[in-house]
Amino acid sequence: MKSSPGDGRRPQRADARDNRDRLLQAARAEFDEQGPHASLNKIAQRAGVGPGTLYRHFPNVHALLVAIIGGDVEVLCAQGRELLEHPSPDEALRIWLRAIARHATAMRGLVATEMIAQPTTETSTALAACHQAIHATGTALLGRAQHHGNAPAQLDIADLLMLTNAIAWASEQTPADAGLLDRLLALINTGVPYPHHHESRK
Known about the structure:
The protein is an all-alpha fold. It has helices at about 15-35, 40-45, 50-55, 60-85, 90-105, 105-115, 120-150, 155-170, 180-190.
């Protein structure tokens, strides 16, 4: 099993790795169903391990969520590297930003909440590594779209990611509108035309 960005873990025995993987899988399912009301004891039961095993790997909910986010970021960055070979740089960037938005709404919005929560020293290091990995991947995709596609030269990846996460948050707050996320993401692609100089009122 690969380590997630910035987790700093030492190699584990096979049984410990297996327990950790089952806990992460169970936690994701529990968070998907219960959101912030997920129970650590139920996660342990779902994984088929005792509470002590859970707490040895993850002392609290925050540590558990950070571990899940780290694994997801690893997948998102791998997808981004593959998209660097996509024949359309613009489409590659769009596909990846949609994946970022979907990730931000995962587990009933807990991913987005955790990314802006007050971190501990240990988890802040892991989350910082996640941010850096996403930023680096996005920079590569955006740069390719700027040089070989139609992305504006002045567009900054930090602004683009912030806008994407804001769109994800808005979508999460309006669950009844299933198409909102894609409609708002489309605005990034098409833009909203406006005059460079506002006419003064007379």
